[in-house]
Amino acid sequence: MLEDTLEIGGKRIACRLFVGTGKYSSHAVMREVLLAAGADVVTVALRRVDGSVKTENILDYVPQSCTVMINTSGARNAEEAIRIARLARAAGAGNWIKVEVIADSRYLLPDNMETLKATEILVREGFVVFPYMSPDLSMARRMADCGASAVMPLGSPIGTNRGLRTEELVDIMIREISVPIVVDAGLGKPSDACRCMEMGCAAVMVNTAIAVSRNPVEFARAFSMAVKAGRLAWRSGLPEIAGGARASSPLTGFLRDTE
Amino acid sequence: MRVRINGREEALPDSVTTLQELVRDRGLVPEHIVIEVNLQVIFRDDWPKVSLRDEDRIEIVSFVGGG
């Protein structure tokens, strides 16, 4: 098959597993995970420095070949998300932004309206914007119309490992939305990621499941293989699902007398 | 001089009058941080030129792991 890269914001992305950098036991383990996954896109957050002197910069542990996407986590409205994006760009972290606006602290579900507002403004300011959203066709359409480079519907609430609970809605988005669909949040195991890719998602994003597994490096490798398998399956064309049985072996030449 | 740093009010020593001096005073690694003064991002090259004033609101942030 021909080369199968995802082109976004002028970059060619070979690895369709985006990996988050949170919750690892050390920066060194995180780096091993990114290498094992072969990650091309990784997310990083921005926070106030605490009083202690920092001697390590997490970005030094991200392989050079990766594109860093800053998330706006912690933002409760569009204004705060925009502020974080501008700070990140000023820090030299590039212009890829995952807009994450969350006003709900129990389920961490995104505020689609504020996300749309931030997306619109950040696109105008030259950012490559990936809005994290609750799967909703109209909202995704508006986000794509105002220049989002992709949309990131959630599979289930952040960090739950519950898998793709929003399948029907994501499936509709894949069929109807012109920009790439990247399922983010809640994917708990490689088969969840594989399912997303078989459906035709452009990529998936995983953090918690990998970071909290007993062997994050090997689990990252498993996720990466699952994403590749799902993608290849989708490109090959999934067969239709039949109601009744259809024999795989010939229905002639049986070892019995004809009646 | 009294300023607000990362949401907390603090008194700065007399030796600290610019952003550059604040960074040095705190022992922060310039390459690892980004600073905003009164909601305006200040680029590293401009830190020596930015004089701090009473009641300035300063945000000092850095990158951390996240999904």
TrEMBL record, chain A:
Lineage: superkingdom: Bacteria
Record-linked Pfam families: ThiG
Binding positions (1-deoxy-D-xylulose 5-phosphate): 159, 185-186, 207-208
Compartments, as annotated in UniProt: Cytoplasm
Positions of the catalytic residues: 98
Keywords: Cytoplasm, Schiff base, Thiamine biosynthesis, Transferase
Transferase recorded as keyword: yes
GO cellular component, one term: cytoplasm
Coiled-coil parts of chain: none
CDD domains for this protein: ThiG
GO MF annotation, one: thiazole synthase activity
Catalytic activities: [ThiS sulfur-carrier protein]-C-terminal-Gly-aminoethanethioate + 2-iminoacetate + 1-deoxy-D-xylulose 5-phosphate = [ThiS sulfur-carrier protein]-C-terminal Gly-Gly + 2-[(2R,5Z)-2-carboxy-4-methylthiazol-5(2H)-ylidene]ethyl phosphate + 2 H2O + H(+)
Domain Thiazole synthase ThiG: 7-250
Signal peptide: none
GO BP terms: thiamine diphosphate biosynthetic process
The enzyme's E.C. designation: 2.8.1.10
Pathway per the UniProt entry: Cofactor biosynthesis; thiamine diphosphate biosynthesis
Main localization of the protein described in the UniProt heading: cytoplasm
PANTHER family: THIAZOLE SYNTHASE
Purpose of the protein: Catalyzes the rearrangement of 1-deoxy-D-xylulose 5-phosphate (DXP) to produce the thiazole phosphate moiety of thiamine. Sulfur is provided by the thiocarboxylate moiety of the carrier protein ThiS. In vitro, sulfur can be provided by H(2)S.
Subunit structure: Homotetramer. Forms heterodimers with either ThiH or ThiS.
Record-stated family: Belongs to the ThiG family.
Protein name listed in UniProt: Thiazole synthase
Organism: Syntrophus aciditrophicus (strain SB)
From TrEMBL, chain B:
Xref: InterPro entries: Beta-grasp_dom_sf, Mopterin_synth/thiamin_S_b, Thi_S, ThiS/MoaD-like
SUPFAM superfamilies, per database record: MoaD/ThiS
Extent of the signal sequence: none
Pfam families from the UniProt entry: ThiS
Protein name per UniProt: ThiS family protein
Organism: Syntrophus aciditrophicus (strain SB)
